[in-house]
Every structure is written in structure tokens, then in C-alpha cells.
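User: Predict the structure for this protein chain, please.
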Amino acid sequence: MFGISLSSSPIRTIFSFIRQPISMTVNALFLALAIYGIFWFCLLSPTDFDTTLAQLIEIKPNTPEYRRFFTDLYSSCLSFGAFIVLAGKVVRFICGIFSPKGDEQGDGQGRLSGRASVIRRKMTPQDIQYVGAHEAGHLLVYAALGQLPSSMKVKVKEHTDNTTSLGYVSAFTSKRVTQSRLFIEWQMLASLAGREGESILLQDNSLGSIYDNHEWFELARLYLKNHFKGIFYIEPLSEFEFNANEAKLNALKEKQTQLLQEFFSLNLSVYKQLTSMLIEKKILYGHEIIPFFQQADITFPQGFPFPFGRFEKFSDEWHLEEEYGKVGTVVDKKY
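Assistant: Here is the predicted structure, written as C-alpha cells:
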């Protein structure tokens, strides 16, 4: 997934924190004033004017009854105004929890958590080129699966939105409780493939790989904690153990980066064609991607993982419905 980062200064964060209670207080005061006006408008209406005037005459100024009358009136208006403001906040919060989230919040590598406010801006041709190369890089690694659901989707957006994602690959959701070593190895390569594809095709990199790097790091730690590459300290306590873990992480990333560089070099013409097709159409679906993989002459370097097993020809059928569901199924993870 290609994402943009939203940087914020400490001053802006503090201001945002203070602004909320100030805004709520001002809204409550305006509502209290409106309720106060409505109260007197009703009491001084032509039908109730004489009754209200007689009651007010009975209340002498500067007496406890006089002060209690207006104190109760002011506090009631303010309390009611504050209640309306808080009720509105609660309703918006509940609606935010149950509002549907699009599949662009998750991609071939995972789900983007949280929301951020992004000004809607049109992508420039160079923006689309970078995002297209990035997402096509992710997508090309899916060729190692040998099969894909026709419902999968790859998208390059033409405008920014509130997801912070500018493009994504959304293929399937895992139903499995456990996961295999080969699948995790493939998944780590898929996480890194967007950036490595950019490097080879554009000789440059965007700054849209933050989430990919975060996911790779989490997957790598899980992978190494199972000691597939030797000793990795589950809970490092000393500087030696921290340094040893860091060395293992760096070595794993370097090895996988080299494997991806070889993969893209062997399939550069296919990668260029896939990137051009994605940039032109902006959205590719499974029924377009599967024939492309079937017709393309894709070569895999030695040591490349095949999580669903080796294959002679890319299949036009999806045989893993029991293991992996369609995107949109309520599960914890998207790939």
C-alpha cells in the first residue's frame, strides 16, 4: 500500500487538544442563550403576557426569591445547552464506530488503522507514476501464488482522501488461525516489493512506504522469534541481546531486498507493462490480472517462496475458498 504521512507539530497538537473543550463551551453558551430567548419569547407571548407580568411583579428585586428565579433559569438553560452539545458528540462518536470503512483501508499487506484528515487534492501525473510503480511492485509478487480470486482489486487513486492511502492491493482475507513459514516469507517480500519496484523502475523512491515498513518489521519479528534464522531473543534484556536482534533483522531485510532486486531485474519488461496498464486504467480487477499473469513469462529467482505450492501455469480458478475469503468478509487480516 502506498500511503502518505501526516506530520504534526507539538504546538498544533496542543492547540487541537485545547480547541475541543473551548469549542464545546462556546457552543453550549450559544445554545443556552438561544434557550433563554425561547423561554422568554414563550412566556411573553400575547396569550401568556398578563400572567407572566403578574408573576414577575410579585417577585421583588434584590430578594432571595428574585435571585433564585434567575439563577435557576440561567443554570437550567446552560445545563440543557451543555447536554445537547455532549449528546451530539456521543452520537457522532457512535456513528463513527459503526460507519462503513472502504477496502482502501486495507491492501495486499494489511489494514490501515485510524483516521486522518487530508485535504482533497488532485494527483499529478508524477504522483500517479510513483503510486502506479509502487502498487504494481506489490502486485507482481502475487504471481508467486499461482492463483488469485477474481474479486481482487488494485487501485491507484486520482485524489487524496481521508484514508491517507493513495493506492492499494486488496486480494483476499485469511480465515486461518495459524500461518505457514512460506506464507510469511512471501508476505514480507510483498511488503517490501512496492519500494523496491520503484527503485528499479524510477531510480528513485517516494516517501509512501511507511506502513509497508511497519508491517514488514512486525512480520519479521514474528518470523525470527520462531528461530527460522537462528537465535532471536524473544524478550531482549541486555544491550548484547538487542544488538543481536537488530543484526538479525538487518540481515533478513538485506537478503530479502536482494531477492526482490533479482526478481524485478529478471522480470523488468513484465513489470513495466504491468505498471503502464495500472497507470492507464487506475483500477485492475482479478479478471484482468489473472490472464496477464497467465500470458506473462515471469521468472522466479532461486529461493523465492511459493506459499500455495509450485505450479507450472498460473490457474484461472481460485481453489482456496475455505482458507481465504473474499475481501469484505469480517476477519482480522487482509492480504
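The chain has two domains: 8-98, 103-325.
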